[in-house]
UniProtKB/TrEMBL annotation:
<feature type="domain" description="F-box">
    <location>
        <begin position="14"/>
        <end position="54"/>
    </location>
</feature>
<dbReference type="InterPro" id="IPR032675">
    <property type="entry name" value="LRR_dom_sf"/>
</dbReference>
<dbReference type="GO" id="GO:1905761">
    <property type="term" value="F:SCF ubiquitin ligase complex binding"/>
</dbReference>
<dbReference type="GO" id="GO:0050829">
    <property type="term" value="P:defense response to Gram-negative bacterium"/>
</dbReference>
<protein>
    <recommendedName>
        <fullName>F-box domain-containing protein</fullName>
    </recommendedName>
</protein>
<dbReference type="InterPro" id="IPR036047">
    <property type="entry name" value="F-box-like_dom_sf"/>
</dbReference>
<dbReference type="InterPro" id="IPR001810">
    <property type="entry name" value="F-box_dom"/>
</dbReference>
<dbReference type="Pfam" id="PF12937">
    <property type="entry name" value="F-box-like"/>
</dbReference>
Length: 321
């Protein structure tokens, strides 16, 4: 018998779309050595289908709270670990990340934000970490580079107008905002002034003044979706005391009924609402389930399960000695 000839393709000669389908099943730690095999594999590892969403939702800083600004101290090993992971992710993704998710207890610095904003210019959605150590210049420079940004989830900030102004100036397609923390009249006025065409706003599990809510309902003419589920709604009484609002009045409900979606829940039987009352409007997220902060009644804002690219295995294998 003549010598049989193997007709199969070698790995290095496989079609890129086949490699991408295989590599989509790998996580960040596994992709790193794979991307160094050859030029074709490197190209496949950088495909946008793999890097649509980079979810660092499991990555938290080792920190303690302090009384002095920035009111947080972060272990140096946490910063080194974050820098290490970002270097790997940004090197392989080649600028193809369009959604980036960070844990609410990840305390990055300006240099981290600068690094990712330079290397992920096509970002369309950002779920921000806490920004105790991020400066005004740092966040503004990052937003300026993200011209395609459409959606931002952010913690409360003391002086929000400059953020809203930068979004209006740099991100012409911006349409979706989620606030996690406090939402007062200053915040609402900044949004209505600089982002009058905002379409989606979620204040889920935030402390919201009635004046701010009325400002949003009366002034954002292009708003289509509003979520105030599990919010602590309140107004200041004449004696200066805070009065909690358990039911919206007919005027607010009538105005909200014009929206395509209006999500609200201020029920004494609701577990999330009970937690808001217990924490006096500022949720202590660390007390509750790890996934609780990721949920949202608005489908486009809900983060669902943790992503494959940075799963539990990556969390264990990317520690810094």
């Amino acid at each position: 018998m003549g010598e049989s000839k193997w007709m199969g393709k070698r790995w290095e000669d496989m079609d890129t779309d086949v490699l991408v389908k295989i590599f989509k099943e790998l996580n960040l730690v596994e992709l790193s050595p794979v991307s160094q095999v050859c030029r074709l594999w490197r190209l496949a590892c950088s495909d946008p289908l793999i890097w649509g969403t980079l979810d660092f939702g499991l990555l938290k800083s080792n920190f303690i709270q302090t009384r002095a600004s920035p009111y947080i101290w972060v272990d140096d090993r946490s910063d080194k670990r974050l820098a290490k992971i970002l270097r790997v992710a940004m090197a392989i993704s080649c600028g193809n990340v369009n959604c980036m998710i960070f844990h609410y207890n990840l305390y990055m610095k300006d240099e981290h934000l600068h690094y990712i904003s330079q290397r992920s210019p096509r970002l369309k959605r950002l779920v921000m970490p806490a920004w105790n150590r991020i400066s005004r210049m740092g966040i503004c420079q990052a937003i300026e580079r993200w011209e395609e940004l459409e959606s931002l989830t952010m913690p409360t900030i003391g002086h929000p107008p400059y953020i809203m102004e930068e979004l209006a100036k740099s991100c012409k397609n911006f349409k979706e905002l989620k606030i996690m923390g406090s939402f007062d009249l200053l915040f609402a006025s900044a949004i209505t002034t600089y982002l009058p065409k905002l379409k989606v706003l979620s204040l889920r599990c935030s402390k919201v003044t009635m004046g701010a809510l009325q400002c949003v309902l009366n002034s954002l003419e292009h708003l289509e979706v509003l979520n105030i589920s599990h919010c602590l709604l309140f107004e200041m009484a004449a004696n200066g005391r805070r009065q909690v609002i358990h039911e919206l009045d007919n005027k607010a409900l009538e105005r909200a009924s014009r929206l395509r979606e209006f999500h609200h829940c201020q029920s004494r039987q609701c577990v999330a609402c009970q937690r808001m009352m217990l924490d006096e409007g500022i949720l202590r997220w660390y007390r509750y389930e790890d996934w609780f902060w990721r949920r949202d009644e608005v489908s486009s804002l809900d983060l669902k399960d943790y992503g494959r690219l940075f799963g539990a295995q990556c969390e264990m294998l990317t520690s810094v000695d």
